[in-house]
Amino acid sequence: MLIAQEQDHSSITLLAEVSRTITNEDDINKVLRLVLFIMSENMNMLRGMITILNRDSGEIVINESFGLTEKEKERGRYQIGEGVIGQVVKSGKALIVPCINDEPLFLDRTRSRSKTKKESLCFICIPIKAGTEIIGTLSADRQLEPTVADKRTEMLQYYVDQLSIIASMISQAVRIKQLAHEESEKKSPEKRIEGLPSRNKHHAEEHDEETLSEAERPANIIGNTKPMISLYKMIDKIAKTNATTLVLGESGVGKELVASAIHFKSRRNENPFIKFNCAALPESIVESELFGHEKGAFTGALSTRQGRFELAHTGTIFLDEVGELSLSVQAKLLRIIQEKEFERVGGSKTIKVDVRVIAATNRNLEELIKSGLFREDLYYRLNIFPITVPPLRERKTDILLLADYFVEKYNAANHKGIRRISTTSIDMLMRYHWPGNVRELQNCIERAVILSEDNVIHGYHLPPTLQTAESSGTPYTGSLQQKLDAIEKEMIMEALKRTQGNMSRAALQLGLSDRIMGLRIKKFDIDYRKFRP
C-alpha cells in the first residue's frame, strides 16, 4: 500500500513537471529535451528517445534523446516494422521488452548499451499519436533489480501508463516537428532541421543561426525557416546600397514588408518612405500621382501638386504592382530611374530628385515583355537586384509563429482573450497549401478570433476553404453525420481538457446530462483519464 502511494505521488510530480514545461516553454526542441530530462530525473531512466516518422520516406529517426551521443543518435534509423520501434509504429501499440537480451526484435542499432548489464535492462516503447495517426514513438530503458515476477510486471505496467500519458501530452509538439522534418527533407534530403540527425547538422546550424545576427534580422518580418533566413541576408546586403531593387513573389507574401525592411535598414531610413500601388488607380490618374501636375494642366487641376517622386526626395519610393503600369508611364519611369529627372504633367520645368526605387510585382515580367505589355529596357533597369519572397507553402514551420502573432494582434484589436489553438486547427493550418499566402492566413486568424467564444480556436472556426478536400488535403469522407460527429467529438475532448478529465463538469459545460455524456464518451471511444493531471 505504501509503495502504491509513493508511486502515485511520484507520478503526479512527474506529470506536473512535464505539464509545466509544455505550457511555459515556446521552443519545441527545448520542450522535448526538457521532457526527456524530467523523465530521467523522476523515473531513473538510463536512456530515452523521441522518434518521428517521415510519412514520405517511411523512415523513423531519433529526434531528441537523453543518454545518447550524437553518433549513437545518428545510427538510430528504422523502417516501419523494423525492430521494436518499427513494430510500435506499424501496430500503434506499446511494446514492453522485460529483458533486451531475450528479445530478437531489439536491434540496439544505436549501439549504446554495449557496456550495460543487459540481463536486467528493460525497454519500453510507446506510440505517439495525432488522432488515430502514428507520428512517432517515446521510449525509455532502465535497470530493474530482480524481483518477484508479479511485482516486475506491475512495475513495468506502471511505467507504461506514465509514458503513455507523456506521449499524449507531447503529441502536438512532435506533430509540428514531423511536418517541419518532412518539409525540410522534400527540399534537400541531405539537410535536416535543427534537432534532427544529419551529416550536415553542424554545418546547417552554423549557416542558419550563427551567421545570422540580430542586426541582419528585419524587425518587421516573422519567420525562422531557411528560405526566410536567405531572404534576410539578401535584404541586409541590398539595404546598404542605393541599387534599384525588384521584389518578386506571389500575392500576399509580404513584398511591401520586404521593401519597408530595405528602406529602414538603409542610410535613407530617416528620410521619406513613399508607397504607391500602380494598380489602384485609373491610368489617367497614375501619371499625375507619380509625377505631379501644374495648375491648369487638365480639368480639375486647380493648383500645382507635387507627385510621389518629389515627396520621396532623398528617401525611397515603393512601386507595388509595377507590371500594371501603361507603356507611356513606363517610359517616364525609365527616364527617372536613369536620369533622376522628370517634368510634371502640363509643365516644362525639369525637376531633379534623389530617390531610390523599389518595385514589386506578382506577375511574370518576362512574359509581359513577350506580349508587348512591358518595356524590356525598363525591366533590365528594375532587375538590377531581384529578391524573391518565398510563398507560405515553402515555409510551413513559420505558420504557427505567424498564427500566434495574428492571434495576439486580433486579441488586442477585438478585446478577446484567445489563449490557444486546438490540435485539430493546427493540423488544418499546417496541411493547407495557402494560395493567398500570409494575407490569407491573417484573414483566417482574424475570423477565428472573432468567432471563438471559449478562448480557443477550433477547427470549425476556420474558413470552409481549409475544410474541403481540394484545398486542405484532409478531406472528410462519408456523410454529413460523420462530419457532425467529428465536430462533436472535438468539442467533447476540448471540454475534457478544460475540466482536466472531469466528465460531470465537462457535461455541464456542454449542456449534456451525465448519462448522455457517458454514451458520447463510449461512442467516440474517448479515454477521459488521459486528460487528468
What is this entry, summarized?
The chain has 533 residues and is α/β, with parallel strands linked by helices. It has 3 domains: 2-187, GAF domain (Beta-Lactamase), CATH 3.30.450.40; 212-390, Rossmann fold, CATH 3.40.50; 410-531, Helicase, Ruva Protein, domain 3.
What labels would you give this structure?
Helicase, Ruva Protein, domain 3; 15 strands; five-stranded parallel sheet; 21 helices; alpha/beta; elongated; 3 domains; Rossmann fold; Beta-Lactamase; 533 residues
Q: How does this model look, in words?
A:
46% of the residues lie in helices and 14% in strands. It has 533 residues and is of the alpha/beta class. The protein folds into three domains: 186 residues, GAF domain (Beta-Lactamase), CATH 3.30.450; 179 residues, P-loop containing nucleotide triphosphate hydrolases (Rossmann fold), CATH 3.40.50; 122 residues, Helicase, Ruva Protein, domain 3, CATH 1.10.8.60. A six-stranded antiparallel β-sheet has the order 3-2-1-6-5-4, sandwiched between helices. A five-stranded parallel β-sheet has the order 8-9-12-7-13. The protein has a two-stranded antiparallel sheet with strand order 10-11. Strand 10 and strand 11 form a beta hairpin. The longest helix has 23 residues.
